[in-house]
Structure formats: C-alpha cells, structure tokens
Amino acid sequence: MTVIDDTQTSLAEIGALIRGARQNKGLTQAQLAERLGTSQSAIARIEQGSQNLSVELLTRINRALEADLLSIGGARASHLRVTGGHQLSGTITVKSSKNGAVALLCASLLNSGRTRLRGVARIVEVDRIVDVLRSIGVVVTWSADGRDLDIQPPAKLDLTSIDTDAARRTRSIIMFLGPLLNREQTFELPYAGGCDLGTRTVEPHMIALRPFGLDVVATAGEYHATVATDRPTDLRVVLTERGDTVTENAIMAAARHVGTTTIRNASSNYMVQDLCFYLELLGVRIEGIGTTTLVVHGSPDIRADVEYAVSEDPVEAMSLLTAGIVTNSEITVARVPVEFMEIELATLAEMGLRYALSPEYTAANGRTRLVDITVQPSELHAPIDKIHPMPFPGLNIDNLPFFAVIAACASGTTLIHDWVYDNRAIHLTDLTRLGADVRMLDPHRLDVTGPTHWSGAEISCPPALRPAVVILLAMLAAKGTSVLRGVDIIARGYEQLQERLIELGAQIETFRD
Ligand SMILES: CC(=O)N[C@H]1[C@@H](OP(=O)(O)OP(=O)(O)OC[C@H]2O[C@@H](n3ccc(=O)[nH]c3=O)[C@H](O)[C@@H]2O)O[C@H](CO)[C@@H](O)[C@@H]1O
Ligand SMILES: C=C(OP(=O)(O)O)C(=O)O
After folding, report:
1. Whose alpha carbon is nearest atom 37 of ligand 1?
2. Is 16 exposed, middle or buried (0-12, 13-18, 19+ CB in 10 A)?
3. Reaction(s) catalyzed by this protein (predicted)?
4. 2-72 and 78-95+312-512 in the same fold
C-alpha cells in the first residue's frame, strides 16, 4: 500500500500509480471512467497528472479499482496516539446525523425534482450512498463549501451499473427497496452490509413491504425483487419490530403509493422524523409524526425542487457529552436535539452528573428542538437499576455503549444490558485494557465497576462504530499515552471527530505506519 502525502508525492506520480492499477485490473480508461461516473478524457488527465484530485475522488478511484492502493489522508492505515488524563474545555457543536442523511439520500429517489440537502455531515457512510446513487445515474453534487448536496434522479435509473462494492459496505442500501418498488417492476440489489454487530436480519423489511406487492428472493449475494402491480388502494402495514430503517422503508414505499397506508408499530425516532419532514415538503401528507401509528397519503408523481436541512445527531451529542464526562471537564455541547436525549439526560442526572441546559431553540429544519448542554465535573455513582435501551422514546440503542465508559468512571457496579445487538457489548470489554473493571455476564450483559484508575494502552480499534469511539474517549480519560490502531471506522459516522476534540484541548495525534 502507498500512502499519499501531497507534500511529497506529485500529481504525476499519483497518476502513474492509478494507471498501473487500472492496467493491472485490465480496465480501459473508458471503463474506469464509467465506474467513476466521469469521462475518459478526465481519466487521461488524471493519469497524466494534469488534474487536481479531491480526497473524495481519490477514495472513489481506490474503490473503483478494488485495490487497497491509495490511502488518503486519514483513511485505512491511520492510528491515533492519545495523551490522556487532561481536562477539556470550550464548546463543540453537534453535526447533522448519519442516520438522517442516509435515509434522506435514499428518499431523494422518490422525487423527480431536485432535492437540496443542507448541512450534510462529511462522513464515509454518506459517501457510500452517494457513490451508489451516482452509479445508477443520479446526479449528486456537493456545493462549493462542501456542506450541501444536490440530488437529481434521472428519468430512468441504471440499476445494472450499481456500485456493488459501495453498496455492500453499508446496511442502508436496504432502504433502496421502498423507493424503488414504485419505480421498477423487477430489480436487483446487493446484500446489505455494515459494522460487526452480529446478525441483523432484513426479514422485517420484507414483511413490511409485502403489502406493497414486493417479493424478494435472495441468492448469491443479491436480492432479486419483483413487484406486483395490483395492490389495494388502502394498505395496512404492521411492523413486527419497531425498527428505524424498516419504518423508513415502509414510509418511502407508501409515499408514492396511490392511496392511504396505515403503518402500525412505527418507530418515531429522529431519523424517521427527518424523513417525514422532508416528505411533507414534497407534498406527501403524513398523520401521526412522532407517534407509533403513521397514516401516509401517497402521491404517485412527486416532482418538487425542495431544500431540507438534516437535523442534529443525538448519538454524536451523546458521544461529545461523554468526552466531557469521562475527562471530568466543563464543556458545552451545542445544538443537542433534546427530545432525543431526554432519557439519557435523566439517567445521567440519576448517576450524579451536573449539567445545565440553555433555553430551547429551533434547528434549521424548523422542527427539531435544540439546546446547548454544559456538563460540569461531577462525582458519579452507579444507577440502582440496569441501563438498557428501548425504541424511541427510550434510551437510544446507539447511545448505550457510551454508558459503559461513563459507568467505569462512576463508583459502584452498573449493569448494562444490550438486548439489541448480539455482538456489540463484547467490543466494550476492550475497556479492561485501559484499566476498567468490565465483566461480561453473557453476550448481552456487562457489569461495569468503577471508579477506574485509567492507564494508557495500545488497542486495535473495534470493528464497530460506537465501541470504537467509546475506546477513544476512554483513552482521553487515561493518564499517559495510548495508541488506537486502525481508526478508519470512526469516519463512517463522525466528521473530523479527532480534529474537533483537539479544539477542546484533547491531545490526539494521527499517524500512519
Ligand atoms: C441507518 C440507521 O438508521 N441505522 C440505525 C437503525 O438501524 P436498523 O433500522 O437497520 O436496525 P435493525 O433493523 O438492524 O435493528 C437493530 C436490532 O434491533 C432489533 N430490534 C429492533 C427493533 C425492535 O422493536 N425489536 C428488535 O428486536 C433488530 O432485530 C436488530 O437486531 O436502527 C438501529 C437501532 O436503533 C440503530 O442502531 C442504527 O444506527
Ligand atoms: C449501528 C449503527 O448504524 P448502522 O445501522 O449504520 O450500522 C450505528 O450508527 O451505531
């Protein structure tokens, strides 16, 4: 593998590397251009070194050549050296959510007009869906300041050219089913992938979409979908699980269904609400937003030029608050979507956390309620009852891992019960390497006993997004130097997390082999 450092390596050398890799794969310039959604002449310029290259384009070239050829600024081979045990200070602002962004990107397929998504987080999960959209002919353009995305689907999607590599790396590809079933009668999609959290079935999606006429046969890494056209006008969908993406899939299928769809046991979590607010802008009427029964009045032809600002990420908010809590610091986390943090904040208060909330204000989407939260150094103690997640309005499943490192800072034993994922809690046992007393009672339950006398260690980054960040935050608490190896996974869901923590005074250095 070659690491690119633009101070040392000229564009011509990069161009030569790309040419070599392309030829090794037996691709013509035109074929590579096709994979990248660009022209043959652009590839010729890149290979001659006469075209400037963005990090995004380099990442896509890497992927199109299916080679670990170019490691670009902080991707795969990056590691972090953390000098911990210091307090942080200052204000850090929550970015928009990964889960809202991916749902909205999928939903933009419903709109024949132009969708402008404002304030989209620059994260790898977004890049993957953008790559998939581009590969099927959708024109997706970042604004000059890199914050907004314009999305314009073509009249006819080219599903045969789908970027399977990008698609297989994300579970969110499953959310193409809902929008596509009203556009195509038969289509194929690659299997959904994602973090190592244990088996995550897609069966609830199949059950939810059956009333819309969808039939899916899964073979050889692909879903083969066929859609029956003779469906009743008024549909009733009962979700067997109150899952977020399954609810989104049902809503997206309903959005272009001619008639009314009633969805029961719907998730009313933040990303589902983001999706509903966007669909309302498109003229789709939805009753019951924020509740578990949604009535969607579909519209077969959606054609509107709209702008929607993705709302703030409650999981990032939890991550940033945790950074302050475990370093015993006073920091302010700005733009916290408070409705989606109520249980977390109440649980933290029970554990003795002192914090102050600013008056509420409204997010750029005009709907979500935000606050700034200032956490103060506190004497924490274990809660009396176990900490466990529930579908919204319970404690967010993705916020649970942060309670493990917080519990390790509290006196007493906290029982953490992750009933949701078979394989997420186990990654949290890496905290023991930093001195924490974490005992697995079974794959779903952890006893965490604190307070911890943290000490630095070298650890390979867990292959799961939230546990990876939990270990990084514990390293901020641990006196001395720690190394977290292979941190690329963090960029799947966090924009420039290390850089933003450094602005709060964290001592983190990125290095490569
Ligand atoms: C892109 C996106 O939005 N991802 C989120 C979404 O994933 P997503 O909606 O894909 O979550 P899954 O459907 O995989 O559900 C997560 C797990 O919870 C189980 N389950 C879920 C609901 C329920 O009522 N009963 C039940 O048992 C599922 O079987 C599965 O094991 O929701 C998860 C759970 O909030 C979050 O961790 C993910 O960050
Ligand atoms: C599990 C998560 O997301 P995804 O559904 O994208 O894997 C997460 O955000 O922690």
Report:
1. 398
2. middle
3. phosphoenolpyruvate + UDP-N-acetyl-alpha-D-glucosamine = UDP-N-acetyl-3-O-(1-carboxyvinyl)-alpha-D-glucosamine + phosphate
4. no
125 burial via Cβ count (<10 Å: 0-12, 13-18, 19+): buried
- Assign domain 78-95+312-512 one CATH number from 3.10.20.30, 2.30.40.10, 3.65.10.10, 3.90.1150.10: 3.65.10.10
User: Could you tell me which CATH number the domain at 98-309 has?
Assistant: 3.65.10.10
CATH number of 2-72: 1.10.260.40
Does the Cβ of 169 fall within 6 Å of ligand 1? no
C-alpha neighbours within 13 Å on the C-beta side of residue 397: 18
Indicate whether residue 242 lines ligand 1 (CB < 6 A): yes
CB 450 within 8 A of CB 436: yes
Note down pLDDT in tens along the chain; length 513 residues.
333 444 445 677 788 888 878 777 778 888 788 777 777 888 888 888 887 776 667 877 887 776 655 555 444 579 999 999 999 999 999 999 999 999 999 999 999 999 999 999 999 999 999 999 999 999 999 999 999 999 999 999 999 999 998 998 899 999 999 999 999 999 999 988 767 777 778 899 999 999 999 999 888 788 999 999 889 999 999 999 999 999 999 999 999 999 999 999 999 999 999 999 999 999 999 999 999 999 999 999 999 999 999 999 999 999 999 999 999 999 999 999 999 999 999 999 999 999 999 999 999 999 999 999 999 999 999 999 999 999 999 999 999 999 999 999 999 999 999 999 999 999 999 999 999 999 999 999 999 999 999 999 999 999 999 999 999 999 999 999 999 999 999 999 999 999 999 999 999 999 987
Distance in Å, CA 204 to ligand 1 centroid: 10
Ligand with minimal distance to 172 CA: 1
Whether the model clears a pTM of 0.95, i.e. scores above it, the answer is no
DSSP string computed for 326-380? HTT-EEEEEEEEGGGTHHHHHHHHHTT-EEEEPPPEE-TTSS-EEEEEEEE----
Place of tokens 């994260």: 123
Distance CA 46, CA 477 (A): 45
Two tokens, residue 233? 């006008």
Q: Is 172 in the pocket of ligand 1 (CB under 6 A)?
A: yes
Whole-number Å distance, alpha carbon 243 to ligand 1 midpoint, is 5
Mutate to test the pocket of ligand 2, among 105, 173, 195 (most ligand atoms within 8 A of CB): 195
- Return the ligand number nearest the Cα of 243: 1
Using a 6 Å cutoff on CB, does residue 128 contact ligand 1?
Answer: no
